[in-house]
Amino acid sequence: MKVLVFGGSFDPVHQGHVSLFKKAVKMIRPDVSHIVPAYHSPFKAKSPTPFNLRMQMLKKAFAGCAKNIIFDDYELKRGGKTYTCQLIEYLKKRYKNPELFLLVGTDCLNDVHNWKNPHIIFNNATVIAGKRKGYNENPAQFKHIFLPGFFPKLSSSRVRAHILACGEIPPTVPAAVHPLIEKHRLYGLKIHDWLKEHLKTNRYIHSKSVAELAAVLSDIYNVNVESAVKAGILHDAGKGMSGQELIRFCQQHRIKTPFFEDICKLEPSLLHSYVSKWLARHLFGVKDKDVLNAVAEHTLGSLKMSTLSKILFVADISSKDRKYKDAFVIRNMALQDLDSALLYAANRKLLFTIDSQKWLCPLGIDLWNHLIKQEK
Hints:
By secondary structure, this protein is of the alpha/beta class. The chain has helices at residues 15-28, 51-62, 74-78, 84-94, 106-109, 118-124, 156-166, 178-184, 189-198, 201-220, 225-234, 243-252, 260-266, 272-283, 289-297, 307-318, 325-334, 338-355, 362-375, and strands at residues 2-8, 32-37, 69-71, 99-105, 125-132, 144-151. Helix 10 crosses helix 16, helix 11 packs across helix 15 (289-297) and helix 18 packs antiparallel against helix 19 (362-375).
């Protein structure tokens, strides 16, 4: 009996998953297929998306793809982390002498030998993999089959980042799944609902533009795309408050801000970065310190900026909604050299502040001097 098994977080399921499965069914012609969503993948943090919702999305996405599909809640029943070797052993017990086929992407194929008890997988199943263009074939030392053709470089993390950045579900998610994501406001749609309610339209558009540019730069500078997008979309969450509201908010929530008294007297709008950090952490549940620091530092910078902080600082001043000439210059520089773009952006901010006859916060001056020292 041929049994095809396809596991993963499916958070969310996308067209790449569906295409991979259809090709495998066509090639293997299994008697039964098990689609097994992870309860808690050994390789990732536990998904915040409830298991039952991911299961519902799977059923919608794979409806009519093949006969005898079992949407298996094996991992939910087990609880905790489940390893592929345990899934293989479960299927061996469920069927009498099954011929097992384990479906994976190319990235997984290159790492299967590092999974827990890989000999159990290799001795009892044939691994089936889909290839992406540019894959440098280095045949694995175990039974495996490549599906014909190539598959797009698509991942659930990219889908999540797209939804969080744009507030829209991309066509890479099966149409049948869209209503479930929209109904439950998954993958950042709740954040967009809040931003639309609390920010002016231009500021909301700016936040999306910054998130989109941050995503592009994260690819270039090897930063997690979801972290970059999260920082980008939330960096101006506090911008909808007036100066006096920002002051009261900081006092009420005891938000520590450098030069607080001077900022309150001379330029209270600068407090929005610190309020946005508070909102990201306490209202939207962001725990990543790198993201939170980037949000706090996006206006004035700091002497110890992470790559993500640099990306957000530059993206904020050069996003595509910015219409002044220097925005285009900084954006192009950032695609080539992030540190050069950061220096130019810091220069433009200082000159703009001086030209506007506004108070120069010492943090901005310190950043400029620090960058010049590094340049020399």
